[in-house]
Design brief:
Layout lengths: L13 E3 L8 E6 L8 H14 L12 H5 L23 E7 L7 E6 L4 E6 L7 E5 L8
Antiparallel strand pairs: 1-2, 2-6, 3-4, 4-5
Length: 142
């Protein structure tokens, strides 16, 4: 198991979402040294980013399943993602913040980036984690 502090690497790379996907989001690299973690450890990794003020911000969060799925490129395989936009994406399950409605305390949705599909899994399952933050556009004159 990686410690939450392992979530923050120096320098902390981020990736902006292309406008064709979901605008106004900034993504972290794959956290926890690229290792799979359970859901609780994923949440701890996000908390560590916020405590450390990664990239100068403290509003990092787990993405929703919709935000995460929007990264998937089903014309690609292992990983099913644009490697130039998200170069460190692993081929496997990434956690989202979206609970599975049938058993929200026990399961959460995620995206399998080996094939680019979504599924839910037990929160004790091990998956990769990436953080996201919403970018508020600057007002005119700022």
């Amino acid at each position: 198991m990686n410690t939450p502090a392992a979530a923050v690497a120096a320098p902390f790379p981020t990736f902006n979402t292309p406008a064709r996907v979901i605008p106004e989001l900034t993504w972290s690299h794959t956290l926890c040294d690229g290792e799979r973690v359970d859901f609780a450890e994923a949440e701890q990794a996000i908390a560590a980013l916020n405590t450390a003020g990664a990239s100068g911000f403290s509003d990092w969060r787990l993405p929703t399943v919709e935000e995460l799925f929007a990264q998937a490129d089903r014309s690609k395989f292992n990983p099913a993602v644009d490697p130039e936009q998200f170069p460190d994406t692993r081929s496997g399950f990434y956690w989202s913040s979206t609970p599975y409605a049938v058993n929200p305390a026990g399961y959460a949705w995620g995206v399998y980036f080996n094939l680019g599909g979504t599924s839910f899994d037990d929160r004790d399952y091990y998956g990769f984690v990436r953080a996201v933050r919403s970018v508020v556009p600057a007002s005119p004159g700022q």
